[in-house]
Amino acid sequence: MAPATLIASETSNSSNAVIQNKKNGVQSKSVVPKLWQNPQTFATKAIQDPWYTAMFGLQSTLFHSSIGFFHRQMGYKYLIVPITTNSISSPMGLGSDSQPVSIELHGEQTYIADSQQFVLEYALRLQDGLAGSYYVGTSCRGEDPDATHLNQFCHVECELLGGLDSGMKVANDYVVSLTESLLREHADAIRAYAGSTSHMDSLIQLYKSNGNTFPTITLDEALALPEMTDDMWKYAVEGEPQFGRSLTRKGERMLIEKYGGACWLLEMDHLSVPFYQAYTDDGVKKALCGDLLLGLGEVVGCGQRHQTEEEALKALAQHEVDPQEYAWYLEMRRTKPLTTTGWGIGTERFLSWVMQHDDIRDIQLLPRLKGVECNP
Predict the structure, then answer these.
(1) What pTM was estimated for this model as a whole?
(2) Pairwise CA distance, residues 271 & 286, whole Å
(3) How far apart are CA 195 and CA 206, in angstroms?
(4) Is the dihedral of CA 314, 315, 317, 321 positive or negative?
């Protein structure tokens, strides 16, 4: 049953959903319904509301554009992935950025995949010289949802040969390619809800004006900015400075505005991120990773992986994760060491930016909010 706190009156009737009139010379925005707030009536109302028709089209274009980018432009191979795993990519050690979802399946304890990063790393070792592998699918996590976070979301992830710079370049090119595709196919629908498409044009221009990349700043540099206030950052473990620092959503949005719409935040404190991120140097304090900040905050997470078994073992010990649970992951590196980088994009966060919308829960066509029963 849906918690009582989620049962609220809807903010609009579907008849209000498409508004094309102008008032005082300004384009009126179409009304975004909050149908997920009433899960019992969601199924019937959503199929009558133009917002969900628009989201259906956007999500379809996002999928097909992703396939075109990775398959035709990059020459990557698609990996059909399982929904369960015995090796979650964010184990409950230091730096874990999600809560795993444990289930019993046919009498065995396992997890619903929170990411397919590890199997994508495996896929690169199935074919020598393969430039990259990717998939589009669902990630499941145990945290409570809110306006910027979903416990089940659509993930586009890839793993590629090369270091962090190579991974960031592919992520940049993908984001711009996807933005251009959505502009071509859905400009009218985007304008109806976002008010304009100027934010998308500006992102493309920012990319081009920076030499086909986006601005970058390290975590240490960001924390030293005069604009940085106490509510823009936090300790990864509350009250424990030794476990590293991270930015809050407010801090991420400050950087987005400062750098003209998007930027990369680099070199996180290693104990504030999962164990699998490579080290920047022998000091083992900084991670060779970055987040692309856009719209609601972090949209893409990117990181170079440990190349050798020894490096991965050191990180597992530092993060207080039992290495036995990742024996196959370590053996994979012993059998075939590679320098690889992977990244993932939460598509609902990206589409929230496209639609200039502030609540990610409205992006899902099929809501799967933790603790809420919703059909279909």
Answers:
(1) 0.91
(2) 8
(3) 20
(4) negative
Residue in the structure block whose two tokens are 């980018």? 69
Q: Bridge partners of 180? A: none
Cβ–Cβ contacts within 10 Å for residue 198, how many?
11
CB atoms within 10 A of CB 280: 19
Q: How far, in Å, CA of 249 to CA of 50, rounded?
A: 30
Which tens digit of pLDDT belongs to each residue from 146-190? 999 999 999 999 999 999 999 999 999 999 999 999 999 999 999
Place of tokens 């669902």: 138
Category of 287 on φ-ψ map: left (φ > 0), alpha (ψ -120 to 50) or beta:
beta
Q: What are phi and psi of 47, to 5 degrees?
A: -75, -5
Q: Average of pLDDT values for 69-82?
A: 97
More confident residue, 88 or 362: 362
pLDDT tens-digit profile of 308-354? 999 999 999 999 999 998 999 999 999 999 999 999 999 999 999 99
The three-state secondary structure class of 180 is helix
Cα–Cα dist 199/289, whole Å? 26
Q: Contact 199/353 with Cβ under 8 angstroms?
A: yes
Report d(CA 112, CA 30) in Å as an integer: 37
d(CA 144, CA 137): 20
Under 8 Å between Cβ of 351 and 55: yes
Amino acid at 295: G
Q: What are phi and psi of 294, to 5 degrees?
A: -160, 135
Residue with the two structure tokens 């039992």: 322
**Domains of the chain (ranges plus CATH)?**
27-362 (3.30.930.10)
Do strands 340-346 and 152-161 pair parallel, antiparallel, or not at all (unpaired)?
A: antiparallel
- Residue 159 to residue 45: CA distance in whole angstroms: 39
Neighbours of 127 (CB within 10 A): 10
Region label for 334, one of left (φ > 0), alpha (ψ between -120 and 50) or beta (otherwise): alpha
Query: Which one has a higher pLDDT value, 350 or 90?
Result: 350
DSSP string, 232-261: GEEESSTT-GGG-EEE-HHHHHHHHHHTTS
